[in-house]
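Key result, reporting period 2: structure in, sequence out.
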């Protein structure tokens, strides 16, 4: 009987300690939950503008594609550079450029035809690999390569 009374006392003390621990943790969580969270602040203090008219339409980005009639030719012959200029008005001036030691130089100009197409003959007199492109106000085609012999 002595062991039974002792084990009851130990169980009671352990249950009491556990209860105190649970109550203290629970009350700390309850206190933390009652703290108000910071209120969000407005970063823009002026009222939202109201639109009385529809927004202006945005212009589609121009794009130029180019291809050559021959990828290899003899020096002094002409190659035709042709392609399409999307979102550019008829009559817009296009510049044909050639890469000379890493710097683009103008060979000639042409204009956009009806339907957004262009075609321009280019005479290449040097020997080696020529790199050409078509540009208009910062928009340019991919580089096309012609081997001149």
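The corresponding designed sequence is given below.
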């Amino acid at each position: 009987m002595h062991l039974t009374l002792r084990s009851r006392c130990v169980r009671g003390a352990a249950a009491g300690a556990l209860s105190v621990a649970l109550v203290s943790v629970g009350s700390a969580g309850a206190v933390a939950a009652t703290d108000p969270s910071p209120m969000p602040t407005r970063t823009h203090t002026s009222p939202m503008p109201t639109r009385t008219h529809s927004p202006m339409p945005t212009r589609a980005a121009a794009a130029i594609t180019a291809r050559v009639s021959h990828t290899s030719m003899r020096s002094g012959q002409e190659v035709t550079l042709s392609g399409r200029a999307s979102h550019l008005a008829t009559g817009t001036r296009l510049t044909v450029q050639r890469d000379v030691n890493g710097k683009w130089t103008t060979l000639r100009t042409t204009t956009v035809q009806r339907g957004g197409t262009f075609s321009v003959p280019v005479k290449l007199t040097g020997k080696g690999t020529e790199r050409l492109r078509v540009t208009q106000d910062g928009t340019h085609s991919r580089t096309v390569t012609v081997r001149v012999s």
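The chain is about 20% helix and 40% strand. Residues 2-34 form the longest helix (33 residues). This case is discussed further under Risks and Mitigation.
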